[in-house]
Amino acid sequence: MPPKQIRPDATPAARAVALPDDWAATPLTVVMPTYNEAGNLPGMAEALMALPLPGLRLLVVDDSSPDGTGDLAEEYAGRFGADRMAVLHRAGKEGLGRAYAAGMARAVADGARYVLQMDADGSHPVAKVPQLLGVALSTGAGVTIGSRYVQGGSLSEAWGAHRKLLSRWANAYAGTILGTRVRDITGGFNLWREDALRAIDLASVDSAGYSFQVEMKYRALRRGQGIIEVPIHFEDRTVGESKMNLMVQLESVAMPWRLRARSRH
Ligand SMILES: Nc1nc2c(ncn2[C@@H]2O[C@H](COP(=O)(O)OP(=O)(O)O[C@H]3O[C@H](CO)[C@@H](O)[C@H](O)[C@@H]3O)[C@@H](O)[C@H]2O)c(=O)[nH]1
């Protein structure tokens, strides 16, 4: 089946469809991988719980962070209640992709209708979550991307020219090899409709690290899912540090070629 794509820069205004009255109660699980995010997690959890989305649930996926993020997450889950927040504890650090695959599978098994991927470090805007859900529901998109690279999207001013260029290059690199028009294919703020996720066998996803973002979107396109991009402002983290390393970067360079080769046979 040829990949189907909604115009990447389509906005709610461009495809307005009336939302049902109870749309804010849609069962939505935010899957948040954490590794040493004790300085960021409390603020993220509080902000998400304060959103006017009674159907929102937070699932933290912690890889036994040495800084105690897992215990802290349990404390917050106890405070907010099991119907609103839960923690998936994993034995050790296996990479962002593996953590997401486990968390997303759990969210779907637990009955989420939508699953949102979100970093714990404050780089993805919490205030945009209702809009992402509204756009997803009103357009029927399988994947709704909080995008830095559509009109209206932007990057942290704290990023220097070199880092901005590298990020744009990474997107152009993966997009060109895979022949997609998705503008933010490397981005990590993505909302999935439950059946779009089910169509991807999460256990068979190859990426251990950040190339998970590219692999998942490419697989969704190959299965004919509509993808829509909503502009966001991406902030740089102010607490803790990125877990990006050389292995992660090498995997991101190789993965588009592997995906392309595989799709040919
Ligand atoms: N459980 C778990 N969580 C992890 C791991 N590695 C990273 N994380 C968590 O995943 C989130 C993102 O990790 P960062 O290391 O902060 O990512 P980044 O460098 O800011 O990269 C972000 O932007 C990229 C695009 O520019 C994205 O490709 C990437 O996925 C991420 O969203 C954070 O909440 C971090 O704690 C891991 O091995 N295990």
UniProtKB/TrEMBL annotation:
This is Polyprenol monophosphomannose synthase. The keyword Translocase does not apply. The lineage of its organism: Bacteria, Bacillati, Actinomycetota, Actinomycetes, Kitasatosporales. Belongs to the glycosyltransferase 2 family. SUPFAM superfamilies: Nucleotide-diphospho-sugar transferases. It holds the Pfam family Glycos_transf_2. The keyword Glycosyltransferase applies. GO terms for molecular function: dolichyl-phosphate beta-D-mannosyltransferase activity. One of its GO terms (cellular component) is membrane. It comes from Streptomyces xanthii. Keywords: Glycosyltransferase, Transferase. GO terms for biological process: glycolipid biosynthetic process. Residues 29-199 form the Glycosyltransferase 2-like domain.
